[in-house]
Design a protein that fits this description.
With 247 residues, this protein is mainly α. Helix content is 71%, strand content 0%. The protein has helices at residues 3-18, 23-35, 38-41, 51-74, 94-102, 106-124, 127-136, 140-147, 153-180, 183-195, 207-231, 240-246.
Length: 247
């Protein structure tokens, strides 16, 4: 492959190959791939690069990157401690939460928000298999559309391909985790206390749908943020494989 063609790949492919997981985390992942003879055993040989090698490298990098992303969101405080994706109380609970805080239930209201984020963190691990299935199903056309796409082309691809199966997988897991962290009991208790106040209307809220959808939004926000950052940072060529393929 000529230097000119290869450089056409490099700007987008570098970013996508390192996307979603962050430079430091992916460096270890690529080292594992190389030491285990990944990419079909091509490693970092000096032979000529072809399209299949570039696409295989992109797919391998996306698998590593999504694994790192899932690991970062599914750990304790993966959502709660990240201001970009922390799940707030729904807007339609604003009046209820303000009223309850005013009569001495601030800690219980805060606990409700914490429980929402804990449920999302515990459910986030389910994303890895869905992402990997999407990467395995990626065609050569899909791969090169990502390589030549915009700053969030990989995130856009994953959002289009995985939102529906992720939501279907998330909802029962979120429901289970919300029960485990006591979210339903917290909410029902607070809603009951609010209903005792004069001149109030009980807000309508589907907790399962709200937490599931916000958990997915947070996951894709992390993907987009990491992808954009890496696309803008050419210093991210931190492994022999990246230097070999994308120089």
């Amino acid at each position: 492959m000529s230097k000119l063609v290869l450089r056409t790949y490099s700007a987008a492919a570098l970013a996508l190959s390192m996307t979603i997981g962050g430079c430091t985390e992916l460096q270890g992942g690529f080292a594992d791939i190389l030491s285990s003879g990944g990419l079909g055993g091509t490693g970092v040989s000096s032979g000529p690069l072809d399209e299949s090698t570039v696409v295989a490298g992109l797919k391998e990098a996306l698998r590593v990157g999504t694994e790192r992303t899932v690991a970062s969101t599914s750990r304790p405080d993966g959502y709660l401690g990240n201001s970009l994706i922390r799940i707030p109380l729904p807007e339609n609970l604003d009046r209820m939460s303000s009223a309850l805080r005013a009569i001495g239930f601030a800690s219980q209201v805060d606990a409700l928000e914490v429980a929402m984020n804990r449920a999302a963190e515990q459910a986030a691990g389910e994303a890895k298999t869905v992402f990997w299935d999407s990467v395995r199903a990626m065609s050569i056309a899909d791969a090169f559309a990502i390589l030549n796409g915009g700053e969030t082309a990989a995130t856009d691809y994953f959002r289009a391909e995985t939102s529906a199966p992720l939501l279907a997988r998330f909802q029962p897991i979120v429901r289970e985790k919300m029960g485990a962290v006591g979210l339903y009991n917290l909410y029902n208790d607070l809603a009951g206390r609010y209903a005792q106040l004069p001149f109030v209307t009980q807000p309508a809220l589907d907790l399962d749908e709200y937490v599931s959808s916000r958990a997915l939004d947070g996951l894709f926000t992390v993907l987009a943020s990491e992808e954009t950052k890496i696309r803008q940072d050419p210093a991210a060529r931190t492994t022999a494989l990246l230097r070999r393929v994308f120089e």
